[in-house]
Recover the amino acids of this structure.
């Protein structure tokens, strides 16, 4: 073969050198372009609804500015009570879910890391954590309701009539919520437990520490941010749940998400949509505050990241 | 590096440690098969062996992190076999990642002191002194993730020393570090160990580390102690075939023996005790004990020459296709290059031989 081979990159080229700044700008523009779907999603499903809620909260049905909607959130005993009950429900189910889910996660973490049981529990938790809404409410009603399978079975076989009315109250709602909070806790908390190293325990023991010392000074502080973070996640999960409560509770609107639904759908008092938006804004503020605490905790935990 | 006043353990009064016929089973695996070692006060014993040979099991048993099914562990004459780990007063440095990530270097080092009820000011002073000892006085406020692997292991060493342990246990503490840091740190650990005078058990699979650091080196295989001896003796006079082959580079050259010596590459050299001493054998000869002389019509042909700084290694093919590696100074390797024919001879140092 005849001819010559040139290597473009090595041969000197007359004229201005390619601009490094320009290339960097192009690369940056490419990065932003790749993020466009994400930004579009966030804008459409998070920012826009928040703006609609915020604007609606401060306007009347006719479109003029008002503080009445927001002030009613603080002055109406019904709304305040709904907020208080929602927070109580979220706190109770978050704590119950965190404690029982945490213990379950601990048991899973202590087991064979490649074991079938672990794989099964994780897979089942993944499904059950999402098993909320009408389906879950129906499952409980069909099992423990007034005409539920278990209730009827006990009545027929043992002659015992169980009072299952509690299932339709906040207590029942707490039990049903806990059902999906526990597996959610397992999924969220298990990676932190898996990250605990045997060497830390051994090192503590060799330095004179028993179990108590290890958990007080090492294990506890290492896990605390993850545990608290998961707890807050469970809180917001329960605080913002709607469908399960709507399917289970047919009398009144005892929690804030149901109250918002009542305001939006009320056929008795018309034009209350913007009051519902004010209530939703209140929820956004509470959830934002919780998320801010969550972010602080995560930042603290990241200081220890290996 | 500034050196702070050594810990009180630096009085040099290390304690004697005795492993007495230790056995350990994991299911059907017999991990320790009658391990017995006497460690003198202040001595550094390096346990060397391949993965799964039982060396770490032995260390963990001494530290109380694992049990023995049979046998005894005596420390300073006291039976510690059933004493829990947190009552043994032993400092352990693990392979890696054992620092508590939620604590600064100072708090890590002070952890054992805190558990002993040492008050805050004294604890801080002692922790910082010990960090000075390992050259990290200026890093006391850093968290583990803000330090390099080598620095983390120094902190781990300081943490182990701060409690003034009766015995120091080093479980492959250098294996996660890069070669240069590993070399520096091993010299530092040895210097500090000698200065503090603490009895030390050092477990490693790296023979260079074991030979460089140990007062004596114990070679383990399949739960058994094959040989324990000073590094030079272990290298020059291996007691078993496993030791001869595992420690250092070894050529396997065909030879013939009919008693106390063996004929190899035309020379007669004495056999070590335990060697096969009848008939055709494979003679285990160290590369530095093979001599090469360039000669037209020589019996060997140089295949390759590797430059190793002050040393050179040459691979030579014999007529029967046996490959022999010879090691010499760089100056002695002049004139050796691939294709050159050479005559080979063996230094008359005692050798080990196995059935051929």
């Amino acid at each position: 073969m005849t001819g010559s081979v040139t290597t473009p990159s090595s041969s000197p080229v007359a004229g201005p050198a390619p601009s490094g700044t320009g290339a960097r700008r192009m690369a940056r523009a490419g990065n932003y372009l790749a993020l466009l779907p994400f930004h579009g999603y966030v804008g459409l499903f998070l920012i826009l609804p928040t703006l609609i809620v915020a604007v609606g909260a401060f306007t009347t049905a006719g479109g003029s500015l008002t503080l009445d909607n927001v002030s009613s959130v603080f002055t109406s005993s019904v709304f305040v009570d709904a907020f208080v009950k929602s927070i109580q429900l979220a706190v109770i189910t978050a704590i119950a879910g965190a404690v029982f889910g945490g213990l379950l996660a601990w048991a899973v973490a202590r087991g064979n890391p490649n074991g079938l049981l672990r794989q099964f529990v994780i897979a089942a938790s993944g499904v059950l954590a999402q098993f909320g809404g009408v389906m879950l409410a129906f499952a409980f009603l069909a099992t423990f309701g007034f005409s539920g399978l278990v209730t009827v079975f006990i009545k027929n076989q043992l002659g015992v009539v169980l009072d299952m009315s509690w299932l339709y109250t906040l207590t029942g709602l707490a039990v049903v919520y806990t059902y999906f909070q526990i597996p959610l806790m397992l999924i969220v908390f298990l990676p932190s437990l898996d990250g605990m190293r045997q060497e830390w325990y051994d090192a503590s023991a060799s330095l004179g520490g028993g179990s108590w010392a290890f958990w007080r000074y090492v294990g506890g502080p290492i896990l605390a941010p993850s545990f608290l973070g998961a707890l807050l996640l469970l809180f917001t999960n329960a605080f913002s749940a709607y469908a399960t409560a709507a399917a289970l509770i047919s009398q009144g609107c005892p929690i804030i998400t149901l109250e918002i639904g009542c305001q939006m759908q009320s056929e008795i008092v018309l034009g209350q949509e913007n009051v519902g938006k004010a209530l939703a804004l209140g929820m956004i503020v509470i959830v934002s505050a919780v998320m801010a605490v969550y972010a602080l905790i995560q930042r603290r935990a990241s200081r220890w990241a290996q | 590096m500034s050196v702070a006043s050594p810990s009180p353990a630096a009085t040099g009064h290390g304690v004697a440690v005795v492993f007495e016929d230790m056995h350990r089973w994991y299911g059907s695996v017999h991990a320790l098969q009658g391990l017995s070692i006497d460690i003198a006060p202040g001595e550094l014993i390096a346990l060397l062996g391949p993965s799964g040979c039982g060396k770490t099991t032995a260390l963990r048993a001494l530290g109380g992190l694992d049990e023995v099914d049979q046998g005894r562990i005596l420390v300073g004459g006291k039976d510690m076999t059933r004493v829990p780990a947190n009552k043994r007063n032993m400092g352990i440095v693990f392979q890696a990642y054992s620092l508590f990530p939620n604590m600064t270097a100072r708090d890590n080092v002070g952890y054992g002191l805190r558990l002993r009820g040492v008050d805050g000011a004294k604890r801080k002073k002692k922790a910082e002194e010990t960090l000075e000892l390992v050259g990290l006085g200026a890093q006391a406020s850093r968290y583990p993730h803000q330090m390099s692997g080598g620095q983390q292991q120094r902190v781990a060493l300081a943490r182990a020393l701060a409690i003034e342990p009766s015995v120091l246990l080093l479980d492959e503490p250098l294996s996660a570090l890069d070669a240069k840091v590993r070399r520096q740190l091993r010299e530092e650990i040895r210097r500090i160990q000698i200065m503090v005078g603490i009895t030390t058990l050092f477990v490693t699979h790296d023979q260079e580390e074991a030979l460089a650091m140990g007062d004596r080196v114990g070679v383990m295989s399949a739960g058994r102690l094959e040989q324990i001896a000073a590094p030079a003796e272990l290298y020059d006079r291996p007691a078993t075939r496993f030791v001869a082959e595992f420690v250092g580079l070894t050529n396997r050259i065909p030879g013939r023996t009919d008693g106390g010596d063996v004929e190899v590459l035309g020379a007669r050299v004495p056999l070590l005790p335990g060697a096969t001493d009848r008939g055709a054998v494979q003679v285990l000869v160290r590369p530095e004990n093979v001599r090469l002389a360039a000669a037209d019509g020589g019996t060997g042909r140089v295949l390759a020459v590797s430059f190793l700084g002050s040393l050179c290694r040459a691979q030579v093919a014999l007529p029967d296709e046996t490959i022999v590696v010879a090691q010499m100074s760089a100056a002695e390797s002049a004139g050796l290059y691939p294709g050159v024919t050479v005559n080979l001879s063996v230094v008359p140092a005692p050798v080990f031989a196995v059935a051929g």
